[in-house]
């Protein structure tokens, strides 16, 4: 996981909704191109998204559930912290790619005096209107187009899991757009997963299904997307003019471990127990297990079968094997002990296969404090 700190309708959606990204947007009829769907191997997709290479994940109820699970996982990872920068009274927040709307809803609820604008390409998986706070404005648009918001407008721009939606040749301009619409001293925070399954001790090899899934997924997304964008966002943000870019790489475990399992061996000079292992990692893994199982299929089925010629049977076999490995205790290992006196030193840790996640945040540029 990579963390960088720096009016609605559903399905049929025949009513008018906001579709243009302006500071004082008008409500106009939603373009029918955004409403059309297509079935592909039993899953429902947005026709506009797949035809324009914008997004290759399904938009059905199963995917909505997965997105909600993913939000719950990230809530644990970030300890229910929605805003990473020190912003206490934001006036305007922009979310790019709101998905099922969980983050946008919670931010709007926590900051009722803040105008929250959330953009997504798909109107089919919007949250129920009864759950949408009055200060939350959901809009439909393709973020591969240039932002039309005025400059110096938002206190914070939040971008999460957009590597599957932003064109590979759009990323630099996308980040420049976020810079332009932020007020002086405003913040941008980005969260992305780098879908390269890893195991620190080398137990997970290139021949394992999880690694084969990763290679094929990364390959199948090109040239439409840049699945390695999470590794480059820090330099892109610096090039765009952001100050104080902070990046944190976070291992996102694919599962937990059973309560009856022997947690860890002894390390010289240190007591070993379940508590030493960091139960939060276990909690994250348990919460993330179902997300991973669904994600291995939903994110990869269209690009792997449509762009790289895998048959449906070949794909299902690979997914089944990858799911099995994601749950396999054989990939768990103990880190070597660190000869450190710090009681908080990570002297021994139980892990398993994981996806790296990056978190990056950055202030736009130094200005008068606000909020």
UniProtKB/TrEMBL annotation:
It comes from the Eukaryota. One of its GO terms (biological process) is methylation. The keyword Transferase applies. Residues 93-186 form the Methyltransferase domain. The keyword Lipoprotein does not apply. InterPro entries: Methyltransf_25 (IPR041698), SAM-dependent_MTases_sf (IPR029063). GO terms for molecular function: methyltransferase activity. Signal peptide: none annotated. This is UMTA methyltransferase. The lineage of its organism: Eukaryota, Fungi, Dikarya, Ascomycota, Pezizomycotina.
